[in-house]
Amino acid sequence: MKALIAYFWPFAAYRDVGRGSVLERAAAWRHNRQLSSSLPLYIRRWAVCVALELILIATLPSPLTRPLAVLLTLSFCGLLHLLSVWLLLRRR
Fold first, then answer.
1. Which of 20, 22, 57, 75 has minimal CB crowding within 10 Å?
2. Is-contact 28 16, C-beta < 8 A?
C-alpha cells in the first residue's frame, strides 16, 4: 500500500515552509523547488488515471458510473492540486 501511495503522491519528501526561522523556511523552499522537477511525472500519472476513468464511465453500464464519477472527481482534484503546486514552485 505504501508503494502505491508513493507512486501517486510525492509530497512525503517535501518540507514544511511555514515552520522554523527565516533561514530554515528559505532552505525548505529551496528543497521543495528542487523536488518540483519530478512533479510532471506525477501529473502525467494522474492525467492517465483521469483519462482511463473517463473512458470507463463512457463504456460501462450506468449502475457502475456513479462510483466511477466519484473516483473521477477525486482524481481530477488530485491532478489540479499537483498542477497548482508545480506552478507555484516553478514561478520566480
1. 22
2. yes
- 9-30: per-residue pLDDT in tens? 999 899 999 999 999 999 999 9
Determine the Cα–Cα distance for residues 29 and 42; give it in Å rounded to an integer: 20
Residue 26 CA to residue 85 CA, distance in Å, equals: 17
> pLDDT of 45-88, one tens digit each?
999 999 999 999 999 988 889 999 999 999 999 999 999 999 99
Contact 43, 86 (CB under 8 A): yes
Q: Are 69 and 57 in contact (CB under 8 A)?
A: yes
Separation of alpha carbons 61 and 67, rounded Å:
12
CB count in 10 Å sphere of residue 82: 22
3-class DSSP state of 15: coil
